[in-house]
Amino acid sequence: MSALGHVLKSMNVLGLNSGTSMDGIDAGLFRIGPQVEGASGGGLCPPLKVEFLFSELVPFEPEFKGQLESFVARGESDLRTMCLLNSSLGEVFAAAALKVVRQVDEKGLSVDLIGSHGQTIWHEPRPSQFWGLSAAGTLQLGDPAYIAARTGVTTVGDFRTYDMAFGGQGAPLVSFADEVLFGHSGEPLAVLNLGGIANITVLSQSGEAIMAFDTGPANVLIDEAMRILFGREFDEGGAVAGAGTVNEAVLSDLLKEEYFHLAPPKTTGRELFGRKRASELVERLRAESIGPKDIVATLTALTARSIADAYKKFVASRVKIKKLVLGGGGAENPTLTSLLQKYWDGELTLYRHEDYGISTKFKEALLFALLAYTTYFSIPNNVPCCTGASRRVCLGKIVKA
What we know:
By secondary structure, the chain is of the alpha/beta class. The chain has 2 domains: about 10-175 and about 365-400, Nucleotidyltransferase, domain 5, CATH 3.30.420.40; about 185-345, ATPase, nucleotide binding domain (Nucleotidyltransferase, domain 5, 2-Layer Sandwich), CATH 3.30.420. About 40% of the residues lie in helices and about 25% in strands. It has helices at about 60-75, 80-105, 145-150, 160-165, 175-180, 220-230, 240-245, 250-255, 260, 275-285, 290-315, 335-345, 365-375, 385, and strands at about 10-20, 25-35, 50-60, 115-130, 135-140, 155, 190-195, 195-205, 210-215, 325, 350, 395-400. Strands 1, 2, 3, 4, 5, 6 and 12 form a 7-stranded mixed beta sheet that branches. It has a 5-stranded mixed beta sheet with strand order 9-8-7-10-11. Strand 1 (about 10-20) and strand 2 (about 25-35) form a beta hairpin.
């Protein structure tokens, strides 16, 4: 049961997320409440204040992580596996939540509400023909019922599907959090997350999110190339790319990818830019006698150039962005960020989430805490101009503990 029409109150909300890297579960506990006493739910989101309380990264067990990565990479499954994976992921997320509940209890803190994104298994936002019907969809596994059952805390999950039911892409959801966190700057800016996939939120001078979309790959192709070519998980400090040379002919060819030329709203994922795609690219470029460092340099340039091109094609005519707030692992790659400034159309100053007092490491955990809080109080929390939905709705399904 949601708190429709109830006066908003401050709550300790735990956000849980596992992203495209599938390293484990980011868990963040935040105190969320209204800035103005007496504000009520049921309408547009009032100004909120957010206080960070606690964070924990709970890694997946190595065997489970390997199986999960292989499962998603294969792109196909049987009914039994899908069924058991949903409940197993639910238990894994529940264990992570319970660990945090116990840790913060020792600090005298409670957990009042949980928001869990689960693990994206497949995301297909563009309609296609399926059994005689036109269908689009998204699938996040990790049933929130298990989290509520194990912790005894009301849990909100499955956030993307209601937006899609109204014609949206079910993503990017982070534009809502960006409005809440950065909408007070008084100047136009963009927030760029460089995780596995790169997504950007464009905020107007008034603080409204006017556009948000996935530009394409951020680290996903680079990381896989590093594993294949160097046996490392990622390009630390952009050192490998920095020691290589961008192959301009290959880069131009890669930029012909259809996705880069689709107008927003649009979203993508490992279905298009994943392990299989990276393996095929590395194999092809090796066959063309392109050296390992040059391959990584070229894939790094692909990320930077595809982001800069997306700004020039789809954003610059609406609002000029001179200020970019970076988040995600790619923000730690100076080779990538310097290339981004090089390719950008016009002057560009880069900032970090930390410059605004926000931990980029737990930004997505904060997103799902904010979504859970606002849904609990019946405050619509999708951004239709960013997702493409026909109306504002409350995202997620509530499991009452």
